[in-house]
Design brief:
The complex is a heterodimer of chains A (435) and B (345). Chain A has a 5-stranded parallel β-sheet. Chain A is built from 17 helices and 5 strands. In chain B, 44% of the residues are buried. Chain B contains 14 helices and 8 strands. Chain B is globular. The chains are: A alpha/beta (435), B alpha/beta (345).
Chain lengths: 435, 345
Amino acid sequence: MVAYNALDVHILHMPFWHFPEALSLRKSSFQGKIDDVMTLNGNYPRSHFIQQLQLAVDPFLTPVAEQELIRLKSLFFDFFVPIPSSQGPLSPETLLQRDSIDFIFGAPGSGKTTLRLALEAQSRSVITPTITIAYIFSERSPQLTREEHLQLLLQSVAVDLVIHLIERFDPLDPPNEQQIKALRTQVETGGALLQRVLQAIVEGIESQSLDPDWGIAHYWERLGKVPVRYVEGSKALGEFLAQLISEPSDRVPIGMEGIEAALRTARLWGVARMVILVDAVDTINLPANRLLDSLIPLFHLLRELKYPLVFKFFLPIELLDSIQQYLRPAALPSDINLIIIKWNEQWQTELLRQRLRAATFPKGPRYTSIDQLAVPGLDLSAKLIAASRGSPRKLLQLVNRLFTIHAERSPRQAQVLLTTEDWEQLQREMEEQKS
Amino acid sequence: MSEDHPFFIDRPRVLEKIRDWIYNPAGETQRGNRRVLSLVGPPGSGKTTLLKHLAANPPHNIKTMALPHPSAFLSGDSIPEDSARQILGEVFGILPDPHATPTAIAQNWVKEQCDYNPHLIPVFLADGYDEISPSQARVYSHKILEALISRECTRLIVAHREDIGLGSLTLRLQQHVLNLNEFEDIDREFAFKQFEHLAKTHGGSAVTEIELWMKTFNEYRWENPLLNELLFEKAWDANGKTLNPPNATTIEQIVAESVTRSGRFPRLNEKQIRYLYSLAELDETWSGDTAADKLNISNFYLDEDIRGLFGCGLIIEIPGSIEHRLARGFRGLLRETRNKRRVEP
């Protein structure tokens, strides 16, 4: 049995403050953009190039979702485009509404984690009877048994349930004793880090030192969550949170009993449905058979964890065949959807377009294509998309490298636009990499 | 259109789309509810008029509530609680809790509406969003607008220019964009009504035989309500209250004045006017490269004067394309002016 403590949750949720570069960034979205230009890890030629293009933020600096989220925070979501798949473009809203167990497969960098983060943001942006729970399944996690999965799931449910319910707090219609008592149990289940964050919020409210843009929501960053909307730090909320952390519960239920307790708490607070997002991040080095072995105990649990728990899996494409074979004999309680992320030229063009649009100052240039950043006739978009071979991450990495090549070629560029020579150097590097 | 004008609705299709969206914000694409409607279009495209019409003529089972101009809530980059409480009290028709914050009042009112009056759809109408600074827009969005859409029964319509984004992730996640540029031009019948109204406003009730007047006033355009009004007023005033076609100089003034009328935008400079005339000679849509060649500039997107024309809505992006065009009405007007200049002494 693995001992679960706050440190485990800390690692699994990858808090932003684990990453030193996150410290230099501001919370507010637009100020964040401006700061971003100034703090490109000391990459001055590159930042100079971005300034020359009059972009407010470098849209290609961090092609990996987790890094990008750390760098850009809520601006990250402005880069989002629906993820194209075997079932058409996947939108967060549609996936959230479906009761089926969805298995979403994709190659590394195809957008699985981006989609999962977008689902979380979507569900927290408005108060509905559905909430999302992120269940992060990392290669850093040991091989988990059914019971260990259950315990880790319980903790994940508690953390996200507490966040959702705090965000729903209404000072003019405060919760009753029964609701508070039930939630207090979840706070304990959530672990020491969650309790410390709640304590910090109480102190922040008392000292009136909350973030003006996000209120208390910016504290969620310490739990690895992005603030999605302004959550007011009222005095009544401070008193409510103090109640949640000051009095320990009589007994914290574990195992299936714990899940039942979480569902009861959710119902008491008007939450009717929980969508569990199982994201196998960082499993690129884990052989498919070992990852499957880790997942099988969780699949066994699915037979017991029925509606209102709805599962969505985000898995590497290598697992598709194994999962298909495994699921045949395994009778799962809901409809099953196997979805494969598939990018094409149209959506990759849209991906670049959306990044350029989102990176633009309100009064800045109206870029809609990489071709507008290049000398006429270079046809750069088509070349980059062809070289990316259908991988959005590869595409972003290529543009990222191209920007750096251009910036370093002449630190104070007389030629602002990307040139044929830049592209040829990128081609040479790609060839070298191949050989 | 100025404040005292009645509410002309020139685009029945747009209004129909808005009504459909209010009743079914998920639309036909099953994308989930998108309860924030961004009504976007350049200045003079009729956004404010549409909002006023909706406020005065709410569809069945809809409670439309016009929010005051955002500046009424704001003092610098903050929202003073006392005045905001009072404003929200007036908007909701309640006596607000004097100890509650404006955000809490809005959230609570919305919650009660959604819980206890589920058949009535509250629709909030927000104009003036593009007239405040980005930091003000962020505060206004976070503390007021987000609260108004915190429950599923409400809707929010925000009128703004396409290039001014919504300063809130929550609003953007709920956003459905209705771009007035994607709809048909204003119809001729509407232009007649507007003309009739303007003539009566300016000349009293003696104006009759509108169609005949329209024929006389044969330069009258109908693509853009703001241009219509300016053109009419210029023609009327310049010709001693006799309606004759305005001359090229008058039209040039109109082009320059149209975007500066409300004081929201910087006045166009000579170079920008010259660019507009050149762009009007291209096909209706054109790419940045084509335009740069025509204007003899190195890069269309980096040119400051071009950005100014984007900024005031005279150059319009074609959604999903790298092409652009001039705002409705301006291209024809500029081409006619150029032709007139050629024949005028």
